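Let's practice the habit of predicting before peeking. Look at the sequence and jot down your guess about where helices and strands might fall. Then scroll down.
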Amino acid sequence: GLDGWTSLVGFDVQDARDRIASLPWVEEASVRKIYPSTLEVKIVEREPFAIWQQGSRLSLIESDGRTIAPLSGARY
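Done guessing? Here is the structure:
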């Protein structure tokens, strides 16, 4: 939602944090306003452990077996 004209005063950090945290590869996210002109974003990524195959579908999984995201291409 940042377009170069967005004021930090009106920027909703909770909404931004929730949107970032909803990404499948994000384990933890924090968003903080630092006045007068800085937005700090910290992300902890989920760590891929293996590629899991179910039929013809491939997924990245964590070491405890939780699925991170479908494997798409050779990005990982």
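How did you do? The helical segments are 13-21.
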